[in-house]
Design goal:
The protein is an alpha+beta fold. The protein has a single domain, classed as Gcn5-related N-acetyltransferase (GNAT) (Aminopeptidase), CATH 3.40.630.30. It has a 5-stranded mixed beta sheet with strand order 1-2-3-4-5. The radius of gyration is 13 Å and the shape is globular.
Amino acid sequence: MAPEGVAVWDNPEDGQFEIWVGDERAGRALYADRGDGVHAFVHTEVEPRFEGRGLAGRLVREALSAARERGWAVLPECPFVRSYLEQHPDLADLVPDDARAAFSLG
């Protein structure tokens, strides 16, 4: 269970969504702008002391929600993001049709 005082923010200057617990950055999901509205999520990490609290899942869920709101197409190059999409097939439409097979997504 995630602790209180958790927030997810986009830090576009660094190309990452960040999850904060209070005033500490607990993790991040790095992305790269591939052009034409396509963004590759390339790495997700949570600091060891924050592991086991569901923060990585919340971070990716909110990052993908922001991607949808912005009209981004998503390339899940990060294994965690790819796994999240496998577990949440309702989000697979974020991945372009011609890229889904490459990521083993329906």
